């Protein structure tokens, strides 16, 4: 009997203590991590609103539940912050969230409502509205100390598979160019193009795109075709010289070579070029010396017009890269060649392989001003149709064997292109499109999420 009375007295004392905590926000209790803390936070089952298309082609939505218990939450004990660095999917209902909180030493948890500013006891069975961060407080078992936390449940507010485009200010200088090529180097974007009998260049910051500065260096009319970047440098071939620059204005002569026609690709350690008789050569010393490349097919299949390249890392070896060379032959056929490049040794086979396929439905079409860039871990092809309309964006995720469309990849809405076209991808994974006097900058939403998440966790 005495044990029961003792238990009732202890229970009444505990209830009285917790009641006092809820009433007084400005009490004199101390904050001591050794006494109490939130040690784990997780979510329960959540609801997501998804888009769909009905059989008759109408847009519709439906709800689907998913288990969010494995979503990782980071607890910053020093600043009292709890949050999920990788946001929940778009459409997740964060206004009705079931959570699970674990505490040190069996601490008692309360939270402050964003609706009325009052404190309430926390319960795993009650859903919470996390459309805004919620203040949690955990009291020690004795009630003598507490810790405060600001808990956020982050969810994407944009659809992941959507390109978000921004139209930049028109540039009348670009309208006078008959052909163009865009190159991204570090924090700068360069546009080179033919204006009459010469190649001229312009540059802007990748954070700008509205203000362009004319470069003081000019080249011969067709030199724009072979200007490319390697690391922090620009390279070009003009008037029998290999040139390099870090700013586009001051160029240094690397070597003199009358056999070179244009640069076509670059890896981290090699430059590739076409010769005047349309052979493929390589330089492993920054353009000083050149050697013939080995091909597994006839050189007549090499691209000589609208040449682009895509560089990607080989799986499992950061020193080895995969070079994809894309363009159109002298006969007007779109072709793809591939080669491995090793930055450390020359032990790997360096033969170029012509990518062939008997699936004509998935071959790369012949686009005007064909431009291929690396994006979303794939090769992305763009350009113009014969009538100067925007040609369908096509992706290859298998090394150039097949090229297919993806609904997520689309041009700016109501885009009106000129009779020229060029594109590039900057280091922030923005795609730049320039056509006539028009300039656009766009990025796939989920690519931006990956970049933001990587920056937040580095």
UniProtKB/TrEMBL annotation:
Keywords: Signal
UniProt domain DUF6242: residue ranges: 41-153, 160-451
Alphabetized InterPro entries for the sequence: DUF6242_C, DUF6242_N, Sialidase_sf, WD40/YVTN_repeat-like_dom_sf
Residues spanning the signal sequence: 1-22
Protein's name according to its UniProt entry: BNR/Asp-box repeat protein
Organism annotation: Prevotella histicola F0411
